[in-house]
Write a structure and sequence with these properties.
Two copies of one chain form a homodimer. Chain A has 19 helices and eleven strands. Chain A is an alpha+beta fold and 593 residues long. In chain A, the strands form three sheets. In chain A, strands 3, 4, 5, 6, 7, 10 and 11 form a seven-stranded mixed β-sheet that branches. Chain A has a two-stranded antiparallel ribbon with strand order 1-2. In chain A, strands 8-9 form a two-stranded antiparallel sheet. Chain A has a domain at 442-584. Chains A and B meet through helix 8, helix 9, helix 10, helix 11 and helix 12 of A and helix 8, helix 9, helix 10, helix 11 and helix 12 of B.
Chain lengths: 593, 593
């Protein structure tokens, strides 16, 4: 089993050094988060991840959740771990202090999220879902709903869910059939079936708060007729004590490729008592409050699993003796050299590092902008940050989860046959990572969100929030000798992205298929440029040096070189695919598939 | 569950139309395989795959193999299916008629192999291993060994294994510790432990013939001191009746990510009676007889699983209604359009088709050359064919198994959340496909085999066997109007491959790390060019038309267009990565990983 140790040096680098300029001065309400406090938070998170969550990861996968007569039992050890997790305040880490949260800025909270997902993705999903429900109620709930539910979600004694999917509808929520009938008491009776509900039923908390999308009797057709309802598993009394069992039941759990310790439930609502959250027919808006936060979280999950796999693979590459280095023995006293001596193994490890560190930088950027959007004193600056976060969200979700699958697979590859057997824990990371490309909107849906919504929004305003800092950076550093191997290739890739953006903006308005056919490649090109920009800045920051030690900065520059030589050139192939147009895809006849 | 139907039209196209020139006149001993007989073989294979093997695939995965007190039990239904499989003569399909085989040419046998692996990879491994053992004994065994073992392997009443790997050595077989001590009776006592032995113990056959790599007492160190021994589970009497139990025992089976119905065994040899196969210390040569055939088979497995996944995904894309086509409803009478209407879904399906059909063409080419190498009247032509097969083998193994993993993952992606749950069978294909990139030499090892062995062999002679037909084709069709969108891009990619080959040949001799650092990207570039060449020929063949129907040829050309527009451009990125040199990989310090 690979041992997981949180990558604290790179986390500190991203937090303090890479975005040093943006983070000075500190945002209002973040002043107290100096180095000492942040280090304490990160160290405590790292310790919990390593000593409590990681040891339950393999056993949780083997046992899976158990369904018995409507009850769901999490694997052995999960209840105790959750009790500790909640008692230590991790559920409400980034939550509003008014409701008992710690109010930790997003840029710090995402690092802790990453640790927990690296150590045990299945476990981390339970508080993750709670977090989504917290967000939706915090933003759209009534005062009474907030007072009743938020403190209990924040302290982890209750958990939350998002009930969207039905057997016949996943991506297309306009097809939802679950109905909400007003009751004389002013509540609603919710009737319908939901599937794929993570944490829909389990034994970790006293109560579960379902946020359910359903249709009111007078609802217009499609997504404009969806409302959101809060359906507690146990109806709380006025003092918050869970009382009568609500008419929501679990009909079974799914047997899945991975995240087997996360309960994925079929839920039946049989006239269950629900309370409208927000305005009637405005459920999609409320749902997106959960969904956007969840999409960033899922991107972080992809990163997290790649990191866990890297740690296992790097350790194995140092220990496993097999063959000789091409240039001659590096360990002549042993029977063989460590496989780290083989260039192709190093290539795979560096590919993982480049993906992981680029991803962490991208998440760090988005999380900082999220803090700005929430906390900055200047409204214009807040709006600009929100624009950038909206733009980056689908990119982070799709790119980082694709990277998560790619890198966990590379981790198995480095382990060889020993990676394919379950005992070593490497193949579990592949199975767990695979869902991240699917849930909270498949990566194809993310790509469509980017090209069809985010690009044209406000006349291209969101895209300019991204293009301007890169253009400024390139202009400022065109003649910077220390960045010679980096700025030129970035400039080339950036020009390709600009041209591809213009092509999509122009052709996509004439023919909607054009945007759709280019979407996935465009998202990948976008991500390559975004990370290329951040790698340039990482090289600068590494040259400045700091508190992470000389080897850290040397490695950072080395990984950057790998990125520019071996990863960024993909921009040419993506550009060619986009500019070739949709013809090869759209002219192919349906009956020929 | 996706229903598997063998893709007979494309199989016939590859066999008869794509390589029509090469296959005229028929090879000696292949004359009887006219269209009628071949169609009968393919139809019988397709029927068995669909009606017997495919129905056991999901249940076999769920049940897995069971180990109990030294015995291994295959999942329910496997014994009956195997009995039928053997009785119908499929084990010895391509085997020598002298020993009871059917003598079917490789170019036909690989198509049947593909069907069986598509339907049930785990099942197909049992006869697959037998096939490897058959090859080694046929080539290197004594007359007496051949007479005793081959008929029983060929009729499937006994099965075979390859016992190479030990806990501390996989790729590096020079580290093997299993010992062979000569006995007074002229046999050897084999002592040692082997792991990851597919079909090492099971309940399908009366006897199991292990081919074991071990060291004689006077063996030189390293791979030059490895000999091959035949170790039957039951020692046969003179009449071939299995007699005394030999001292080989199964210590357990592995719990794996996939191929769960294939028994992966730990075997202990405790002074087991073994018989030398071939000359002392020449075991690696004998092993490669098995290994090279096995590598082609593994490539076919990657193709096979991609095909199975495509069939499931295409059917789902037609049935699943979700959202609307970007250009407006295509099924206005329904609540939503089939997801096939979404360009990104079509893109994924076309990516799968391009990979699958290109792979099948590549296998068809190699299999035909294998037939030439075995059957052609002209020795020079036989040698040339053997050269090409040797060159293509690592490319097919690595490229097709990478494609298998990529495409089975795309199949899951098209299914969305429904692909991630086990019930639909799509995620099993991902788990099963994953081993193909690892076993019979990891794909990194294949890449090293290509650049470090095959490229420099005989002063580049093998490579010329590949370059010449492509150069000839390009010269002949430079001005061919019907091939305008294809020949130009192929020419560009081919020039890149030529330059990269020259670079590796030159730099690789100065610095062995250079070849190692370029190997994986070079193999992929090679595969892109090989398939680009075959796609050009496929477009030609499609233009000529034939017996597969108009829609087939239209689809073939459409898929070719996709390949040239969306896949082949990757050659630029691979070329850039190779030509950037090894520095980014080799200069990175060990301690910085």
């Amino acid at each position: 089993m690979p041992v997981y140790d949180a990558p604290l040096a790179d986390m500190r680098f991203v937090l303090r050094e890479l975005f040093a300029a943006e983070r000075t001065p500190p945002l209002p309400g973040s002043e107290e988060y100096g180095d000492e406090l942040v280090d304490a938070v990160l160290a405590a998170g790292a310790k919990l991840a390593r000593s409590v969550l990681a040891p339950l990861n393999r056993s949780g996968d083997e046992a899976g959740c158990r369904f018995d007569d409507g009850q769901v039992y999490t694997p052995q050890g999960f209840r105790d771990a959750y009790a500790r997790f909640a008692a230590d305040g991790w559920v409400g880490l980034a939550a509003d202090p008014e409701y008992g949260g710690q109010g930790v800025p997003q840029s710090i909270a995402v690092l802790v999220q990453e640790m927990f997902a690296s150590a045990n993705l299945s476990f981390s999903m339970y508080p993750g879902l709670t977090h989504g429900a917290y967000h939706a109620i915090h933003r759209w709930g009534s005062d009474a709903q907030r007072r009743m539910y938020l403190p209990r979600l924040v302290d982890g004694s209750w958990s939350g869910t998002m009930c969207l999917t039905e057997p016949h509808c996943g991506t297309d929520l306009g097809l939802i059939r679950t109905r909400a009938q007003p009751t004389p008491a002013g509540a609603h009776a919710i009737t319908g079936s939901k599937i794929f509900i993570s944490a829909g039923e389990h034994d970790l908390t006293r109560n579960i708060v379902h946020l359910v999308l359903a249709r009111l009797p007078d609802a217009p057709a499609g997504i404009k007729g969806i409302s959101m309802f809060l359906v507690p598993k146990f109806l709380p009394g006025e003092d918050g004590t869970p009382g009568a069992r609500n008419a929501v039941s679990c009909g079974g759990i799914e047997h899945k490729m991975g995240i087997r310790a996360s309960a994925t439930c079929q839920l039946h609502f049989d006239g269950a008592t629900g309370f409208l959250v927000g305005a009637p027919h405005k459920g999609m808006r409320a749902m997106f409050t959960m969904m956007n936060a969840a999409r960033l979280t899922v991107g972080v999950q992809g990163l997290a699993l790649a990191e866990a796999s890297y740690q296992g693979a790097a350790a194995y590459a140092r220990e496993r003796l097999q063959g000789r280095a091409p240039g001659g023995a590096v360990r002549p006293e042993a029977d063989a050299d460590p496989i780290l001596a083989h260039p192709d193994v190093r290539r795979m490890l560096l590919h993982m590092r480049a993906g992981i560190e680029g991803a962490r930088a991208l998440v760090g950027w988005a999380a900082h902008e999220l803090d700005v959007a929430e906390r900055h004193a200047d409204a214009a600056r807040r709006d600009a940050a929100q624009d950038l976060v909206s733009l980056l969200t689908p990119v982070i979700k799709a790119c980082l989860t694709d990277m998560g699958s790619e890198c966990t697979n590379l981790g198995v590859q480095i382990y060889g046959g020993h990676g394919y057997i379950r005992d070593n824990g490497m193949e579990q990371l592949v199975r767990d990572a695979r869902i991240c490309q699917i849930y909270e909107g498949t990566n194809g849906v993310q790509a469509m969100d980017l090209v069809a919504r985010k690009l044209p929004a406000h006349g291209g305003r969101l895209l300019r929030r991204f293009f301007h800092p890169i253009a400024d950076f390139l202009a400022a550093h065109a003649a910077d000798e220390s960045l010679v191997p980096f700025v030129g290739p970035l400039h080339k890739a950036f020009r390709r992205l600009q041209q591809a953006s213009a092509y999509i903006a122009q052709r996509g308005t004439e023919d909607a298929d054009e945007a759709g056919a280019a979407a996935s490649e465009y998202l990948r090109l976008f991500a390559l440029v975004a990370q290329g920009y951040l790698w340039c800045r990482a090289v600068q920051a590494a040259a400045r040096g700091g508190a992470q030690g000389e080897a850290f900065y040397r490695a950072k520059r080395g990984t950057a070189q790998f990125y520019f030589q071996r990863v960024l050139p993909q921009s040419g192939a993506l550009f060619a695919a986009i500019m070739g147009g949709a013809g090869a895809i759209t002219q192919y006849r349906d009956e020929d598939f």
